[in-house]
Design a protein that fits this description.
Layout: H1 6-14, H2 18-21, H3 27-44, H4 47-59, E1 71-74, E2 77-80
Antiparallel strand pairs: 1-2
Length: 85
């Protein structure tokens, strides 16, 4: 994580509005933002936010149909999330 700790990175990334602040970037480049955000959420155990980001990313058509499907570890069990739902 480029910011030192997941909590530091999450705080900085959460302050951004990707639609406004990253509008100058290509969709492929924006995937780096989403990847870092979801990785930090996962490291911090914030699985609901991780899933919400993946769903938003997919709904905005920035991920391919087989794109981002995070694994949320709830109750000690992995579950695949279909972000297209």
């Amino acid at each position: 994580m480029p910011f030192g700790t997941p909590s530091e990175a999450r705080k900085l990334l959460a302050a951004l509005d990707p639609a406004r602040d990253l509008a100058w970037m290509s969709d492929d480049a924006k995937l780096l933002y989403w990847r870092e955000l979801t990785t930090d959420d996962h490291a911090l155990g914030v699985y609901g936010s991780e899933i919400a980001s993946a769903v938003r990313l997919t709904r905005e058509a920035r991920a391919t149909r087989g794109g981002v499907h995070p694994c949320a570890c709830a109750g000690g069990h992995d579950r695949r999330v279909d972000a297209r739902a």
